[in-house]
Amino acid sequence: MTDLFEYLKHNAYPGRGIFAGKYNSENVIAYFIMGRSANSRNRIFVKKDDILYTKAYDESKVADPSLIIYNAIRTYDDKTIVTNGNQTDTIYDFLKEGKTFEEALATREYEPDAPNFTPRISALLTDEEYTISILKKKDEECERISYTYPYSENTGHFISTYDHDGDPLPSFSSEPIGCDISLPFEPFAEKLWDSLNQENKLSLYVSFGNKEKIFNKNGGD
């Protein structure tokens, strides 16, 4: 198992990251965003009506909202959707129609932000298991990979958009990283926020069951 905090502490730019797992009897979700450009850094997390979404911190400075403003977390019945883009809504709509997570993602591909071609990362948590997906550019095709894990006590898996900083940014290249969850809610959330690169981090959402916390660099925690 990898120490998630140490992994992130030594990674200046994993981009956007999703962590899913279980601590004792509570489902664990963490999602963070980072940014390098002024447009990307002009964001915060807001939660309203059970939807976590990104919002411009200063509306007057928005250059292009197309890939930075989206619903990040939504729920449908007993399922929780977590993604790094507007595929959240695609998955939600498909689930409402009785279709699957995989069917929804089959209609999407990586982001059109050349030269990075940022992967779309997504997770679906149910009562029994969680599935983590990545859609990334491989040659001229979209590679679609999903991993499904049964819950294992006090463990989870992490995926991010990038392996590390670079130009262009290198897409995440391994399977989701298995990590122990050794801390309860508040210490876990605080330590995760502190582990993210101070210059590049923007926002973090953490939930353990019904407990949740949002950190925003813009405007304070």
- Largest beta-sheet details: 7 strands, antiparallel
Question: What would the CATH topology be?
Answer: Glutamine Phosphoribosylpyrophosphate, subunit 1, domain 1
Terminal CA distance: 29 Å
Helix-residue proportion: 10-25%
**Radius of gyration, taken over Cα atoms and rounded to an integer in Å:** 16 Å
- Order of strands, main sheet, comes to 3-4-5-6-7-8-9
CATH level 4 superfamily? Inosine monophosphate cyclohydrolase-like
Poorly predicted runs: none
- According to DSSP, the number of beta strands is 13
Number of H/I helices: 5
* CATH class type: Alpha Beta
Q: Percent of residues in beta strands?
A: 35-45%
Average pLDDT confidence is 97
Number of domain modules: 1
Helix/strand/pairing class, anyone?
alpha+beta
CATH architecture: 4-Layer Sandwich
Shape: globular
Structure, described:
The chain has helices at 4-9, 38-41, 87-96, 101-105, 185-195; strands at residues 17-23, 26-34, 43-48, 51-56, 71-76, 79-83, 120-125, 129-138, 141-150, 155-160, 177-180, 201-208, 211-216. It starts with a helix and ends in a 5-residue tail after the last strand. With 221 residues, the protein is of the alpha+beta class. The protein is built from five helices and 13 strands. Helices cover 16% and strands 40% of the residues. The protein has a seven-stranded antiparallel sheet. Strands 11-10-1-2-12-13 form a six-stranded antiparallel sheet, covered by helices on one side.
